[in-house]
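REQUEST
  id: r-88c1
  op: predict_structure
  target: DUF218 domain-containing protein
  payload:
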Amino acid sequence: MYGFYDSESESGAGLDLEVGVQRRTKRRKSLTTLGRRMMRSVYRQLQMHYKLRPLFILCLSFAFFCGVLFLVLFYENVDGFRFLGEVHSDFPLDANEDFKNLRNLVMVAGHAVYTNYSCVKGDEENCWFLEPYQKHPGQASTFVEHIKTGVEVAGKDERSLLLFSGGETRKEAGPRSEAQSYWMVAEANNWFGYSEKVRDRSLTEEHARDSFENLLFSICRFREITGDYPVNITVVSYDFKEERFTDLHRSALRFPRSRFFFVGTPTAPEAVLAAQQGELRVQTSFQRDPYGCEGSLLRKRFARDPFLRTIPYPAGCPELKGLFSYCGTHVYSGRLPWST
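RESPONSE
  id: r-88c1
  status: 200
  body:
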């Protein structure tokens, strides 16, 4: 019996006192071994589920693939995400070859929607949907005069882009834009003798809901079409709106006065007094709210968007992103492409 007694049994570490036999010491399993066994277990589970539910595994794999694809497409940097439709300010927008050499903008601001396609010239009141304040003899002729003047101005400048501006502002007129209406009237009048010179560089801006948006959106549209911003801008509208465009809207955009021009035409004779009084009220509103983003001006924009159109800008003019998101009583102080 003494032969079985040694240093290990003396310490009691290797001897089982109940049965009197030597006890084996257990070895600890390494983390690497446990990891491999866990992976093999997961793999066997997946194999078993695939045999029993192959469709479930395929759907799970597809969902995983979609998740990875989402991260690849939408992840911008460690700071966050961006939507695919968002355009960086340094993203190069390609200009159409037919328009990339145009430098000047001629913008005709729309005032009504053309609804009667049986009209030949568009100079009769029943050719248009008119608001009560617009129902004056000769009012339709003033719209045609705007269109004609814009065509003539563009016809004298081969490097100009003519834009008719105005959205789908009248519910009763249906989803037809003021801009498209003006283009159609120009077409019906054979572009007033300038067809060969002007037609191919006359387009539309179909989202503006007021005079400020007429100007801002047309500048953005010019950038979208030509790849650059206009060197000179000429606005065609009623003569009583000159101060609004030249002093208020231009100043709010900080566009250089020396490169901004206004061509005005008269309103219908019977509408002069009412137009002047209404203009004073509108100017007062824009003096308080230069960007039209609050109060009565904002409510008017909502009212002039009966078909709930999404404004696409500034996707076509990413350099103006800050300006488009600005709402304040002071002039926007951020960087602008035309500011020095």
